[in-house]
Amino acid sequence: MIDLKEHTTSTGEELLYLGNPDFNLLDELVLGEGDIWHSSLDQGYKNVFPEIVYQTVVYFWYAKDFDNLGKSVSWRINPNAFVIRKYVWEAFEGFDMGYENIQMSALDFGFNILRYQGAIPLYVKGLFKERIEDINISTKDIYTFYFKNFKLSHSLYMLFRRGFYKINEINSFWFAKSQFQFKDKTEILKPRELQPIKGTPRVSYIIPTMMRQGFTLNLLNDLEQQTYKPFEVIVVDATPENSRDESLYDSKNYSFKIVFKWQTTKGSCRARNEAIDLCTGDYIVFGDDDIRIQPQFIENHLRLLQTYNAEACNGLDIRADHQQQNLNDLERKLKAMGDTRWKVGAAQSFSNANSCVSRRVVNLLVGNDINYDGGYGEDSDFGLSITKLGITVLHNPFSVNLHLKPPTGGYRFWGQQAGVKGKKRKQQPWELDTPVKWIVPTPSPTIMYQLFKHFDERQRNEYKIKYFVFYFTKAKLIELPLRILKFPLRILQFNKSVFYSKKLIALGKRTK
After folding, report:
1. What's the sign of the alpha-carbon dihedral 255, 259, 262, 267?
2. 6: helix, coil or strand?
3. Buried/exposed code over 356-378 (b: 16+ C-beta within 10 A; e: otherwise)
């Protein structure tokens, strides 16, 4: 049992803490998005428990701590020096003490509240002055953490990677398997009550579209029905001249300022950047052309950001069953989700179909990285880039879209040539000065580019190993002989993807 001290801030917020925090700084922090604060990264905890890579690989933004930031999302909590909102501690009933070392108990707590339970742990430089600690995590605690938090397959994979022939690894694996089991993470921190909008912030709404004018018009009609209307809407349409109907776009049909721009460049990233250059609002909402939104959509984006004193959020994206579904279908799907919908927390993904970011932050990033045009991954790159600035991207369950995903149209039309071989192939932007010939890179070079841009060598290596493990284990038994025969080709395709990604890395981020 941990004996925490109590402190009440000047605004009446009840906190629990250990160590010697800067109480004046806490008065400021409680007004923001955080739920638990620490300075652990300066006390020996930075990137501790690297074994998390065996499960998360590159699919969890916060697996590795960020560098050179005064504040950032981090689950690596020092159990001897942290502050937490009292109601958050009580909601989750404190640390799980079923570990040999309380340091592992704190890591377990931080990881679970961040990844599954909707609370936000923040590293804050200078909040604590405690000295550097020695971190001692036993092999038993490593496997115990895995059995408590992940499926058995992840523990088996870690055993395989760490050495299934080592006695200590085998003994620790069997000890954890016999003593512990997966613990449910159903307890979710309730969102804060959204406050009314303060002031009259101006919202710019961006819609990049291509060969989907009908869907775009439906979205514009939804924007016209908003309880808090956008100040301006920028539509950048890449529909070819022979397929477009310019008469469908009439600014007189809308009560907000609207700009229709026909795109002459190629790519959704370029389209968004061209739209950003035309925006004048305090906030920018990014939306796809194939979504439907409820009347409170924009209002709830603003209310969430103001309530949490944040600058970026990613809304809840609901996939439609078919493209004819409407807002009534969306409401039915939300009711079916029940209470599982209501989780805020730090976002673990980002979607350009539904996100709201302050203009200040968008200016810091300059824009979308056009190296992703013709491929995939631009959404997560944008969100992760915001996070690496030390700005928490919130998940927003209050602003929901229904994603129709029609089978035709959209910017993926240009990227569909990526799998074509020979003379019929249309060159993709990421091919640069080296057109693809007979070895088609797999996975997408832009996905590989993201791995080199945002993740370290160990994470990339783990991605590669798991990629080829899944190549075999995800196949049906009858398919295995063919996969074995094709394995040398798949290695060539993977290496070709690395080749193109390194050329993109050499270019660096581009916005024009």
Report:
1. negative
2. strand
3. bbbbebbeebebbbbbbbbbbbb
Taking the C-alpha atoms of residue 104 and residue 144, their distance in angstroms, rounded to an integer, is 10
Domain boundaries, the chain: 5-179, 203-403, 420-507
The answer to whether residues 35 and 84 touch, using CB atoms and an 8 Å cutoff, is yes
448 in Cβ contact with 305 (< 8 Å): no
Tokens read off for 28: 């400021």
- Looking at domain 203-403, its CATH superfamily turns out to be Spore Coat Polysaccharide Biosynthesis Protein SpsA; Chain A (3.90.550.10)
SS3 207: strand
72-103 pLDDT per residue, tens: 999 999 999 999 999 999 999 999 999 999 99
For residue 211, give the DSSP letter: S
Peptide bond preceding 407: is omega within 30 degrees of 0, i.e. cis? no
Token representation of residue 369:
């990285």
- SS3 state at 243: helix
Residue 439 CB coordination number (10 Å): 14
* pTM above threshold 0.90: yes
C-alpha distances in Å from residue 37, one per residue of 75, 119, 300: 10, 11, 26
